[in-house]
C-alpha cells in the first residue's frame, strides 16, 4: 500500500513505535492497556461459562466428581501451580525491567517465563498421557470402570470438564508461549523502555490472567 | 473542565518495588500450601467454600499487584469488577433455577 | 430537483481532492487496508450478500407455506430452510450489520479520531467474519443443517445427521469477529475522543454503540464456550447436555440464551442509535431528554442480561425461577419505551423533513413499538405458555428485527450514504422502496400474529387448512418486501457513479462527521477538530464548522 502524504501538517518527529492514528505515546499506552483489559474481561466470561457448567454438575453428581478428582495427582498439580505462580513472578519482573529500562533483565525474565510455562505444559502432557493410559479420556476411548460402577458415567462427565478446562487453559498457554518468543526477540532488539513498555505490560496482563484461571482450576479439579 | 481523551505525552505510571513483587510471590506460595493442607482436612460441606475463598484471595493478589490494578485507573477497576459481576449474574440466576426446581408449589 | 432548506447551500464544487476512496487503488489496497472506512465498506458488501442469502431461504419457506400441505419440500428440507434462514440472518447479518458497517465507518469520525484504536484488529475482524461466513456457505452447499438456529441439544449433538459442527464453528468464528469490533469501539470511545468532546456532548449514536459493545464483550464469550461444549459433545460422543448420559439439555438452553437474549439488544441498540441521529437531523432539534436516552441505552444493556430464561419458560425450569424472569422481562421494556417517548417528544412541534431516512425512522418507531409490546405479552408467563413456539413469537421477533433493526439499518445507510460515497441517492426511488418495505413488511408479519395466536406452530411446513388465507397474505407481503429490498441495491449502486455529488453536510445536521468533506479524507479531518458545542446544538456547530474546518 502506498504511503499517503498527509495534507496540512509536516511529519512531526515522534517515537519510532508511535502508531499514526494516536496523538502521542501516552494515548497509545492507555488504549493498549484498556484494550487488553477488555479482552481479559471477555475471557473471564469465556472460561466462566465452563466453570458454571462444571459447578452445576458437581451439584448433581458430587460422588462422581469426588471419584474423578481422586484420579488427579495433587502433588503434580501443586507442583504445576507453584511453577505457574513462579512464571507470573518472572513475567511481572519482565514488566518491571521494561519500565525501568533494564533491557537484559527484561529479556531474561521473559525467557524464564517461557521456560516455566513450558515446564507447566510438559507436566500437563505427562498427566494427560497417564490419564489416557488409565482409559480416562472421554469418548470412544473411555474404558475406565469405577469401583462403584454407578459412578462411571459421572466420572466420564468429570473428565470431559477436566480435559475441557485444562485443555482450554493449555491452549491459552501455548498462545502465550508463542507471544513470549516474539517478545523475547523484541526485548533483545531493544524495542522497550520507560517510554514504550505497553506491549510487555499487556503480555503480562494476559499471562497473569491465564495464571488466575489455573489458581481456580487446581483446587476444583484436584482437591475436592 | 473539558476532559481530554488523553492527558500525558508519555506514560507516567507507577513502578512497583521489587520487594512488593517478591512479597506477593511468597504470599501466593504460602496460600497454595494452605490450599493443599486444608483440602486434606475433612470439613464436610465447607471444604469447597474454603478452597474457593483461598483461591479468591490468591486471584485478588495477582490482580491487584501483579496486574497493577491497585494503581490503575478507575476505568480498569470498572472493567475488572464488571466481568466478575456478570459472571456472578450467570451463576446466581442459573443456580436459582436448579436450586428451586424441587420446591413445592403449595 | 427540489432542494429543501435543510440542504447546506454552500455546496462545494468538488475539486480533485484526495479522499479515502481515491488515495490508493488496487485490490490489495482494499484487502490489506487498515482504514476503518474501507473496512466498513468491505463489511457492507459481505453483510449485504449474507442478507440476501438468508432472504432466499425465507422466500423458499414462504413459498412452501402458500399451501397447507407440505408439498414443495420434505419436512427435513424445510427444517434446513428455517435453520439456515435463522443462522444466516442472526449470526451473519443482524449481529454485525449496523456496528460493523455504519459503526466502523462513522464512529471514529463522530469522535473526531483518525481511526479506531486498533486498525489491524479491525481488519482481522473482517477476515474472521468472512471465514465464519464461508463456513456458513459451506454448510449450505454441503447439505445444510436442520437443528434450528438455536442448536438445541440433544438433537444437535446426538441425532441430527447434518453439518452441525461446521455451522457452530462458523458462528464461533464470527462471534470472535464481533468481539474484536466491540473491543475496538469501547477503547476508541474511552480514549480517542477529540479535545472538548465530553461524554454528554457525544452523539447518542455513540452511547448506543458503546452499550452494544459492552453487551458484545460480556455475552458473546458465553455463546462461544457453549458452542465449544456442543462441539465436544458431538465430536466425542459424550453427554454434557444429553440426558441419556447424565447431562441436562436445559443447561444448554441456559448457557445459549445467556448470550442470545442480550444478542437481540446487540441487534436493536445500533438501530436505535441510527434513529436518534436521524430524528435529531430531520427535526433540526436536540433529542428530547438527551441524558435519559443515553442512560436508557446503558439500562437496556444491563437489564437485557437478566431476562434470558423467558426463552425457557416451557422447558422445565423451576416455576419460581420463571416468575422471577418474567418480572425482570417486564422491566427491560421500560428503557426502550423511554427512548420511543423521547424520539416522539422530539418530533412534537418540530418542523419535520420527510427525506427517506425519516420515513424509515417512522416505520421503526411504529413497528418497534408493536414488536416491543408483543414482547411484553410473551414475557407474561401465562400467555407464553399458550403462544410459545407459535407464529406469534415469529411475528414478535420479526417486528423487532425487521421492522426495527433492518429499518434502522436502511435509515442509516441512506442517511450516511452521501458521507460514505460523496453522492446523493435518488430520493423518489428511495421513498418508493421505503413504502414497499413498510407495506410489504406489515402484510408479511401482521397475519402471523393472528395465525400464531389461534394455534399455528412455528417451524412446521404443513398446517391446518383454516390458516391458509393468512399464510397466503403473508407470502404476498414477502414478495412486496423483497422488491423493497432489491430496489436499493440497484439505485444505491447507480448513485455511486451517477448520483448528484454531495457536499459536506447535505442534511444540515450536527455531528463531527458533517464537519468534514464527503467523502472524508484518509485521516478523516484535515485539521483535528476541537469540540465547543453541546450535543445537537445546531447554531453553535454550524458556526464552528464555518470558522474552523473550512469546508
Concise account of the structure shown:
Chain A is mainly α and 224 residues long. Chain A is 73% helix and 0% strand.
List keywords for this structure.
heterotrimer, A: disordered N terminus, C: 551 residues, 17 helices, 0% strand, globular, disordered N terminus
Word description of this protein:
The complex is a heterotrimer of chains A (224), B (106) and C (551). By secondary structure, chain A is mostly helical. Chain A has six helices and no strands. Chain A has helices spanning 25-60, 62-69, 74-99, 103-133, 152-188, 198-223. With 106 residues, chain B is an all-alpha fold. In chain B, helix 1 packs antiparallel against helix 2. Helix content of chain C is 67%, strand content 0%. Chains A and B meet through helix 1, helix 3 and helix 6 of A and helix 1, helix 2 and helix 3 of B.
Q: Unreliable segments of chain A (pLDDT under 50, ≥5 consecutive)?
A: 1-9
How many runs of DSSP E, i.e. beta strands of chain A?
0
Helix tally of chain B? 3
What fraction strand of chain A?
A: under 5%
The helix/strand series of chain A, from N terminus to C terminus, equals HHHHHH
Q: Major sheet of chain A, described briefly?
A: none
Question: Helical percent range of chain A?
Answer: over 70%
Number of beta strands of chain B? 0
Number of helices of chain A: 6
Instruction: Report the span from N to C terminus of chain B.
Output: 60 Å
Structural class of chain A: mainly alpha
Main sheet of chain B?
A: none
Radius of gyration of chain A, rounded?
22 Å
Q: Which assembly state applies to the chains in this document?
A: heterotrimer
What's the topology here?
The complex is a heterotrimer of chains A (224), B (106) and C (551).
Chain A: H1 25-60, H2 62-69, H3 74-99, H4 103-133, H5 152-188, H6 198-223
Helix pairs in contact in A: 1-2, 1-5, 1-6, 2-5, 3-4, 3-6, 4-5, 5-6
Chain B: H1 18-40, H2 47-66, H3 74-100
Helix pairs in contact in B: 1-2
Chain C: H1 27-31, H2 36-64, H3 75-94, H4 97-110, H5 119-142, H6 155-159, H7 164-191, H8 204-236, H9 249-283, H10 290-303, H11 319-347, H12 356-379, H13 381-387, H14 391-421, H15 427-453, H16 468-498, H17 538-548
Helix pairs in contact in C: 2-3, 2-4, 2-5, 2-16, 3-5, 4-7, 4-8, 4-14, 5-7, 7-8, 8-9, 8-10, 9-11, 9-12, 9-14, 10-11, 11-12, 12-14, 12-15, 14-15, 15-16
Amino acid at each position: 500500500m502506498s504511503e499517503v502524504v498527509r495534507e496540512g501538517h509536516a511529519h512531526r518527529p515522534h517515537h519510532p513505535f508511535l502508531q499514526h492514528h494516536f496523538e502521542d505515546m501516552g494515548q497509545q499506552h492507555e488504549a493498549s492497556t484498556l484494550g487488553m483489559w477488555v479482552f481479559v474481561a471477555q475471557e473471564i466470561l469465556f472460561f466462566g461459562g465452563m466453570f458454571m457448567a462444571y459447578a452445576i454438575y458437581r451439584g448433581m453428581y458430587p460422588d462422581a466428581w469426588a471419584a474423578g478428582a481422586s484420579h488427579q495427582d495433587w502433588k503434580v498439580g501443586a507442583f504445576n501451580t507453584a511453577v505457574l505462580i513462579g512464571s507470573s513472578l518472572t513475567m511481572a519482573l519482565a514488566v518491571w525491567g521494561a519500565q525501568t529500562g533494564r533491557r537484559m533483565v527484561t529479556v531474561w525474565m521473559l525467557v524464564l517465563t517461557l521456560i516455566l510455562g513450558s515446564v507447566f505444559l510438559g507436566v500437563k502432557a505427562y498427566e494427560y498421557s497417564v490419564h489416557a493410559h488409565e482409559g480416562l479420556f472421554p469418548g470412544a476411548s473411555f474404558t475406565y470402570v469405577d469401583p462403584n460402577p454407578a459412578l462411571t458415567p459421572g466420572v466420564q462427565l468429570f473428565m470431559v470438564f477436566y480435559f475441557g478446562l485444562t485443555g482450554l487453559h493449555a491452549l491459552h498457554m501455548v498462545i502465550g508461549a508463542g507471544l513470549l518468543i516474539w517478545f523475547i526477540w523484541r526485548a533483545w532488539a531493544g524495542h522497550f523502555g520507560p517510554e514504550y513498555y505497553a506491549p510487555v505490560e499487556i503480555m503480562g496482563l494476559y499471562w497473569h490472567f491465564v495464571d488466575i484461571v489455573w489458581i481456580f482450576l487446581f483446587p476444583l479439579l484436584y482437591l475436592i | 473542565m473539558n476532559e481530554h481523551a488523553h492527558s500525558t505525552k508519555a506514560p507516567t505510571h507507577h513502578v512497583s518495588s521489587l520487594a512488593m513483587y517478591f512479597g506477593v510471590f511468597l504470599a501466593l506460595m504460602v496460600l497454595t500450601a494452605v490450599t493443599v493442607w486444608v483440602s486434606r482436612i475433612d470439613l464436610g460441606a465447607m471444604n469447597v467454600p474454603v478452597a474457593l475463598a483461598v483461591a479468591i484471595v490468591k486471584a485478588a493478589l495477582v490482580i491487584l499487584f501483579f496486574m497493577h490494578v491497585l494503581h490503575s485507573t478507575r476505568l480498569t477497576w470498572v472493567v475488572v469488577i464488571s466481568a466478575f459481576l456478570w459472571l456472578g449474574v450467570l451463576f446466581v440466576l442459573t443456580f436459582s433455577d436448579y436450586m428451586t426446581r424441587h420446591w413445592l408449589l403449595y | 430537483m427540489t432542494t429543501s432548506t435543510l440542504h447546506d447551500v454552500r455546496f462545494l464544487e468538488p475539486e480533485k481532492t484526495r479522499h479515502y476512496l481515491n488515495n490508493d487503488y488496487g485490490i490489495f489496497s482494499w484487502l490489506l487496508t487498515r482504514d476503518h472506512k474501507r473496512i466498513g465498506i468491505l463489511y457492507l458488501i459481505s453483510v449485504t450478500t449474507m442478507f440476501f442469502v438468508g432472504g432466499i431461504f425465507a422466500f423458499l419457506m414462504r413459498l412452501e407455506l402458500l399451501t397447507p400441505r407440505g408439498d414443495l419440500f420434505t419436512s427435513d428440507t424445510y427444517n434446513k430452510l428455517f435453520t439456515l434462514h435463522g443462522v444466516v440472518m442472526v449470526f451473519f447479518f443482524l449481529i454485525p450489520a449496523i456496528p460493523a458497517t455504519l459503526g466502523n465507518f462513522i464512529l471514529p469520525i463522530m469522535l473526531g479520531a483518525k481511526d479506531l484504536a486498533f486498525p489491524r484488529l479491525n481488519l482481522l475482524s473482517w477476515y474472521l467474519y468472512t471465514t465464519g461466513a464461508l463456513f456458513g456457505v459451506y454448510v449450505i452447499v454441503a447439505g445444510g443443517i436442520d437443528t434450528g438456529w438455536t442448536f438445541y441439544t440433544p438433537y444437535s449433538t446426538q441425532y441430527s445427521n447434518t453439518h452441525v459442527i461446521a455451522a457452530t464453528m462458523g458462528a464461533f468464528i464470527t462471534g470472535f469477529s464481533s468481539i474484536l469490533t466491540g473491543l475496538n469501539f469501547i477503547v476508541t470511545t474511552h480514549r480517542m475522543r477529540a479535545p472538548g468532546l465530553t461524554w454528554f456532548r457525544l452523539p447518542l449514536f455513540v452511547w448506543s454503540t458503546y452499550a452494544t459493545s459492552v453487551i458484545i464483550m460480556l455475552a458473546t464469550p458465553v455463546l462461544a464456550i457453549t458452542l465449544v461444549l456442543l462441539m465436544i459433545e458431538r465430536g466425542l460422543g459424550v453427554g454434557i447436555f444429553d440426558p441419556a448420559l447424565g447431562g441436562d439439555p436445559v443447561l444448554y438452553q441456559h448457557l445459549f440464551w445467556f448470550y442470545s437474549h442480550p444478542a437481540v439488544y446487540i441487534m436493536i441498540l445500533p438501530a436505535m442509535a441510527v434513529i436518534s441521529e436521524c430524528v435529531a437531523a430531520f427535526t433540526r432539534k436536540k433529542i428530547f431528554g438527551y441524558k435519559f436516552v443515553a442512560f436508557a441505552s446503558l439500562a437496556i444493556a444491563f437489564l437485557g442480561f437478566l431476562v434470558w430464561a423467558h426463552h425457557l419458560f416451557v422447558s422445565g425450569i423451576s416455576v419460581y425461577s420463571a416468575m422471577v424472569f418474567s418480572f425482570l422481562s417486564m422491566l427491560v421494556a421500560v428503557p426502550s419505551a423511554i427512548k420511543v417517548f423521547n424520539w416522539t417528544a422530539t418530533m412534537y412541534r418540530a418542523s419535520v423533513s420527510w427525506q427517506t431516512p425519516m420515513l424509515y425512522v417512522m416505520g421503526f418507531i411504529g413497528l418497534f413499538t408493536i414488536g416491543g409490546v408483543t414482547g411484553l405479552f410473551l414475557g407474561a408467563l401465562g400467555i407464553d405458555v399458550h403462544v410459545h413456539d407459535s407464529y406469534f413469537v415469529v411475528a414478535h421477533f420479526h417486528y423487532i428485527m425487521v421492522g426495527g433493526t433492518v429499518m434502522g439499518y436502511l435509515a442509516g445507510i441512506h442517511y450516511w450514504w452521501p458521507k460514505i460515497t460523496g453522492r446523493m441517492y435518488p430520493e423518489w426511488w428511495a421513498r418508493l422502496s421505503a413504502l414497499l418495505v413498510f407495506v410489504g413488511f406489515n402484510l408479511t408479519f401482521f397475519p402471523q400474529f393472528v395465525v400464531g395466536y389461534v394455534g399455528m406452530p412455528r417451524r412446521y411446513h404443513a398446517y391446518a387448512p383454516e390458516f391458509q388465507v393468512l399464510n397466503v397474505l403473508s407470502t404476498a407481503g414477502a414478495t412486496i418486501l423483497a422488491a423493497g429490498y432489491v430496489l436499493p441495491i440497484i439505485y444505491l449502486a447507480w448513485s455511486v457513479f451517477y448520483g448528484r455529488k454531495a457536499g459536506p453536510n447535505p442534511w444540515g445536521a450536527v455531528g463531527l462527521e458533517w464537519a468534514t468533506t464527503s467523502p472524508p479524507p484518509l485521516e478523516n479531518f484535515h485539521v483535528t477538530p476541537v469540540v465547543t458545542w453541546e450535543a445537537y446544538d445546531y447554531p453553535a456547530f454550524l458556526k464552528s464548522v464555518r470558522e474552523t474546518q473550512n469546508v
